[in-house]
Amino acid sequence: MPPAIEPKDRATSAGSSKAKKAPDGPTPKRNGSAARAPAGRKAQRRHQILSAALAVFSEQGFAAARLDDIAARAGVAKGTLYLYFESKEMLFEELLREAATPMYGRLARIAADPRISGRDAIKRLLDAFRREIVETDARHLVRLLLSEGPRFPALTAFYYREILSRAVPLLRQILERAHERGEIRSRKLLEVPQLVMAPALAALMWEDMFGRFEQLDVETLFNTHADLLTTGEDQ
Amino acid sequence: MPPAIEPKDRATSAGSSKAKKAPDGPTPKRNGSAARAPAGRKAQRRHQILSAALAVFSEQGFAAARLDDIAARAGVAKGTLYLYFESKEMLFEELLREAATPMYGRLARIAADPRISGRDAIKRLLDAFRREIVETDARHLVRLLLSEGPRFPALTAFYYREILSRAVPLLRQILERAHERGEIRSRKLLEVPQLVMAPALAALMWEDMFGRFEQLDVETLFNTHADLLTTGEDQ
DNA sequence: TTTTACTGACTGTCCGGTCAGTCACTATCA
DNA sequence: TGATAGTGACTGACCGGACAGTCAGTAAAA
């Protein structure tokens, strides 16, 4: 249960860093919203920066993203970035690493509960994916991982080791249990549990790339898929 | 100094001067163009460059790719690139544009033949996708489109307009025909034809990102999917 | 005062794009 | 036949702008 960067407080990025030269008169304090609270201050700054980084990286890609932009968006000076992250690379990697696990946690919880039917398990998974990723800014993170992954071998390895190599067996476990109860249509599905999540990836890409031309009916897509995988009342 | 990778096909240029592009009959004299290269030369160079560009762009991404590297890989000088393409952007766009159509053609041919059963149509499509894209270098192109798409709006628009907005109806047409024959399991599939190709995308990404850790059984994945979508002998 | 947090002008490097020059070749002339 | 001139293909050193990363300095906190 890692933080999962949330790009919500976009507003703070507005010109906060330039009021430096303009003496505001009686204002004794710095203009930044984070004035003191030494305790949470550092964590908050860090979050600001990661949040801005997500926005800029997902808009520009890793190479084209400029640290000046990230700093401006976070409302800090460029030098400050280096107080929190070693380099552009490290900032990028930490951004993706910290966002990694929420979906995995969800999957693990479903797999741990044997009372959930196969159909339900699949529907819940896809539904969570839709609500929490496809329909939020988190989808940019997935695209970032997919597109920049090859140039960050350590990152790809991390994802495989920490997420996928665990998620696939969990998925298989769910499917096996369901299969024993006769809830699964094809035995072969046990050999390729990845099929369960395939439409999730496809939906994500469609929305991200072509959503502006034609929205995909993600809910119907996922429901149809779940219905096809499992036995039980169709539509 | 440039090692001049290879003198290329100097030999072939001798002798027959077939560089006849103007079929104006037996032109006695030709003002201009004294040292015109052989007919295929230009196309060949272009292909060399595009080929090198694919390799470098898919390894580095658009922004990080260096034209010096592309030139070196193609065995030409950097300046030569500009004789064939206007800019780095144009080179990139043309690379992706030219790669677009083969799969669409395949789909169109299948859709045009009503004798093919729904199950067969889907299997053929997925099979072609596997053999021609997932298992070749072309898979990098899809990742490139995905990752750089947002920064090349014209390219995304091109793909939607020329490929997707035509492919989805074709797919729907195949599914409708199949549905009338009772070959399709769920009517709802007609609302989201994208589901047919979803595993193709997923397989491609898996292989590209994580294939080095764990190969995906793409054939089983596709067959299972096709079996689940259609009626007919499962096994 | 010392310590901590932050700043932003500056530097060195990198790379897209340019263009004056070379080369291989051919057509025409003597 | 050889000599001369013309052409397009190609080259690669160079230029200028952009940007990651640095650090001396400033401001607030302790």
Short description:
The first copy, chain A, has helices at 38-60, 67-74, 78-84, 88-98, 102-112, 118-134, 138-148, 153-180, 194-210, 218-229. The first copy, chain A, has 235 residues and is an all-alpha fold.
Question: What does this entry look like structurally?
Answer:
The structure is a homodimer of 235-residue chains. By secondary structure, chain A is mostly helical. Chain A folds into two domains: 10-88, Orthogonal Bundle (Arc Repressor Mutant, subunit A); 102-229. Helices cover 62% and strands 0% of the residues of chain A. Chain A contains ten helices and no strands. Chain A has helices at 38-60, 67-74, 78-84, 88-98, 102-112, 118-134, 138-148, 153-180, 194-210, 218-229. In chain A, helix 2 packs across helix 3 (78-84). The longest helix of chain A is centred in the last third of the chain and has 28 residues, at 153-180. Chains A and B meet through helix 7, helix 8, helix 9 and helix 10 of A and helix 2, helix 8, helix 9, helix 10 and helix 11 of B. Chain B binds a DNA duplex (30 and 30 nucleotides) through residues 1-2, 4, 10, 13-14, 17, 29-30, 32-37, 41-42, 45, 66-68, 76-80, 82-83, 87-88.
Blueprint of the fold:
2 copies of one chain form a homodimer.
Chain A: H1 38-60, H2 67-74, H3 78-84, H4 88-98, H5 102-112, H6 118-134, H7 138-148, H8 153-180, H9 194-210, H10 218-229
Helix pairs in contact in A: 1-2, 1-7, 2-3, 5-6, 5-8, 6-9, 6-10, 9-10
Chain B binds a DNA duplex (30 and 30 nucleotides) through helix 2 and helix 4.
Name the structural class of chain A. Answer: mainly alpha
The biggest chain-chain interface is: A-B, 52 and 55 residues
Helix content of chain A: 55-70%
Multimerization status: homodimer
Counted by DSSP, the helix tally of chain A is: 10
Strand percent estimate of chain A: under 5%
Number of strands of chain A: 0
Q: Give the distance, in angstroms, between the N- and C-terminal Cα atoms of chain A.
A: 35 Å
Which series of helices and strands of chain A comes N to C? HHHHHHHHHH
Largest sheet of chain A: none
Rounded to the nearest angstrom, the radius of gyration of chain A is: 21 Å
Net shape of chain A: elongated
Mean pLDDT of chain A: 84
Number of domains of chain A: 2
- Pick out the low-confidence regions of chain A: 1-37
